[in-house]
Amino acid sequence: MTRVRLAGVAFLLMAAVAHAASAADPQAIFIVRHPERAPAAPAAGADTSMMAPASDPPLSESGRERAAKLASMLRSADIKGIYVTEFQRTRQTAEPLAKSLGLEAIVTKGNDVDGLMAKLRGAKGNLLLVGHSNTIPDILKRLGVREDVTIPDSEYDNLFVVVRPDGGEPTLIRLRF
């Protein structure tokens, strides 16, 4: 990513957080899909020594690099809570930021959007949610976003910022990182 593009993304993030700060008890929720995963195990007979289990693959090298970029971008976003699913790729995505902030990620079931939303109702401050392409559109809807969002299986660079002013309509900002 070029410095100009990274600077532009950083500017938009600061603008989103500043917008959130203008309301009483505002909240910015940063939502990302886990980055690129390691390839799943191949067909029988192939060398599997460098392959990940199909059911819970870790991040690939490029995925780990993207997770580090995310941590760098959000380090100053005043994140107070981090939510991940039970899958290692979401935990690995949040790990660089969690370590730098001294936070422990809260694990939720990947398919339990109701449970996640219940936990979010009591959460204060800015949050990071790391999810999956099939659950993030529903999470955005439940946060009050009216725009229909789809995430193709090949996209790992979406950063959704939902700014929720107290008592107001949420604003969605969609960035790439």
Explain this structure to me?
The chain is an alpha/beta fold. It has a single domain, classed as 3-Layer(aba) Sandwich (Rossmann fold), CATH 3.40.50. The chain is 36% helix and 20% strand. The chain has helices at residues 3-21, 61-74, 88-101, 113-121, 136-142; strands at residues 27-33, 79-85, 106-108, 126-131, 158-164, 171-176. The protein has a six-stranded mixed β-sheet with strand order 3-2-4-1-5-6, covered by helices on one side. Helix 2 runs parallel beside helix 3. The protein is globular, with a radius of gyration of 16 Å. The N and C termini lie close together (8 Å). Residues 19-23 have low confidence and may be disordered.
Concise overview:
This protein is of the alpha/beta class and 177 residues long. It has five helices and six strands, in the order H-E-H-E-H-E-H-E-H-E-E. The longest helix has 19 residues, at 3-21.
Describe this protein with a few key phrases.
single chain; Rossmann fold
Which outline best applies?
A: globular
Succession of helices and strands:
HEHEHEHEHEE
> How many structural domains in the coordinates?
1
* Beta-strand residue fraction: 15-25%
N→C terminal distance: 8 Å
Tell me the total number of β-strands. 6
Structural classification = alpha/beta
Question: What's the architecture in CATH terms?
Answer: 3-Layer(aba) Sandwich
**CATH superfamily name?**
Phosphoglycerate mutase-like
Unreliable residue runs: 19-23
CATH class: Alpha Beta
Task: List the total number of helices.
Answer: 5
Characterize the quaternary organization of these chains. Answer: single chain
Q: How would a textbook summarize the main sheet?
A: 6 strands, mixed
What is the CATH third-level topology name? Rossmann fold
